[in-house]
Amino acid sequence: MFLGVTASVTNWDAEGATCSLVLEDNPLVDFVELPDTCQGLHYCNILSGVIRGALEMVSMKTEVTWVRDMLHGDDAYELRVKLVKQVPEEYPYKDDD
Question: Which residues cross the membrane (predicted)?
């Protein structure tokens, strides 16, 4: 939302715990070209950390990995999101007192 990017959620697994986020555009790479010596680098890896951190704020422990990246010659940007576990909410104080 803050980057002005639209993402499609696709490729759900049978358990409903893993899906793919396909980004149509990525403004973070507008003027970026990776040299041949850096082809193993995921330039926008910060996006996977942002998604993982946002899901942790709503009590979801996840793993987020890059599957496709246009900087590596793929046709789209795709992140794979896997739900590891749902963390129960803990309150630091008691409401009953």
Answer: none
